[in-house]
Amino acid sequence: MNKVYFDNNATTPILDEVFDSMLPYLKEEWGNPSSIHWAGRCPKKGLDEAREKVAAFLNCSPVEIIFTSSGSESDNLAIKGVANSKKKKGNHIITTSVEHPAVLKTCKYLEKEGFEVTYLSVDSKGMIDLNELKESITEKTILITIMYANNETGVIFPIDKIGDIAKQHKITFHTDAVQAAGKMPLDTRTLNVDLLTISGHKLYAPKGVGALFVRRGTRLVPIIHGGHHERNRRGGTENVAGIVALGTACEVAARDMDKEVARLKEMTERLEKGVIDTIPNVQVNGGGSPRLPNTTNISFEFIEGESILLGLDMHSIAASSGSACTSGSLEPTHVLLAMGNTAELSHGSIRFSLGRTNTMKEIELLLEVLPPIVERMRSMSPLYAGSNEPVVFKR
């Protein structure tokens, strides 16, 4: 049975050309890029060229790119780095209630260190209110950190408008763009962002590499101390092979973006329409808001999402019940709860996130096997058996 992968927001497979670009730095060019002798020269060149590619992808200067081990490290460096550099000016941070755990848990940590954090709410469509953001700003506000696109629902926040607000109040602004990268343009010259996070394994590069854009003039206290790597902002010998792969992945993403976005959007729209037309009592979470072209999060009333996943897995179809970073939790996803969904409806949600390897034929296969799975699970559900002509959700 062919394996079908609809969990690209969790991680992506490595593209062949990305894999090929990193191979020499795993074997032949194994030197330390900080060494001035022959063994370090080629790795240093590969590092510099990758930095230029990532900078081109984000439309910034290479000196504004810091390489890290992951999106989570980049988020931590951005948030803790700014907070610690500005704590004499203020201690207030603004974020949202639907951020990735790498942001939420970092903010919770800083609260224990004496910082105050405002968590903006979202409406039933997963969108924030810019007026709430404006009203939350105080004289002590030093940082706004708001994701570009939500990893669970795909909802895209108005980062350009948020950046304008931050700039007007002279507040440092960071965005976690891990899920947006490769699915929409990220132009740091037109966006009023001071820091921006991306991650390799969401871009068809390997796990273990990420990058942080830091606009010139933005003060940042390192969280990893060591050598003079990354312009003294992140100690530790660079993962050259991973960084080279990230550079290639960014190059490929920029080259193919228009074509790939159109393809993903067509498949996602077909998936959503097929589910709504064939399965009653479903809800598209975030429907009505701008969303990523590859992501749809659908709640199936009366049943657990985990049971649907197991049913799909029997057909070798992989999907997700939420963020991969919280998949071990028995709690309903914080994102859907923040949107006003009940715990029961949140538990019945499935995220389908499409990628380069997916085809329309796979979408049709999913639409063939999913309705019987849902019908079978509901037939065993006491909630469904006890319902009286439940409302058909199509939001």
Molecular structure report:
The protein is 40% helix and 13% strand. It is built from 13 helices and 12 strands. The chain has helices spanning 16-22, 38-58, 71-86, 101-112, 130-136, 159-168, 229-232, 240-278, 305-313, 334-338, 343-347, 360-379, 382-385; strands at 4-5, 65-68, 92-96, 116-120, 141-145, 172-176, 195-199, 210-214, 282-285, 295-300, 317-318, 349-353. Strands 2-8-7-6-5-3-4 form a 7-stranded mixed beta sheet, sandwiched between helices. The longest helix has 39 residues, at 240-278. It starts with a strand and ends in a 10-residue tail after the last helix.
CATH superfamily of the largest domain: Type I PLP-dependent aspartate aminotransferase-like (Major domain)
Give the name of the CATH architecture of the largest domain.
3-Layer(aba) Sandwich
Segments where pLDDT lies below 50 for 5+ residues? none
Q: Kindly estimate the percentage of residues that lie in beta strands according to DSSP.
A: 5-15%
Q: What is the N-to-C succession of helices and strands? A: EHHEHEHEHEHEEEHHEEHEHHEHH
Mean pLDDT: 95
CATH class value of the largest domain: Alpha Beta
Shape label: globular
Largest sheet: 7 strands, mixed
Helix proportion: 40-55%
Structural class: alpha/beta
What is the CA-based Rg, rounded? 22 Å
- The third-level CATH topology of the largest domain is Aspartate Aminotransferase, domain 2
Report the count of strand segments: 12
Distance between the termini: 34 Å
Strand order of the largest sheet: 2-8-7-6-5-3-4
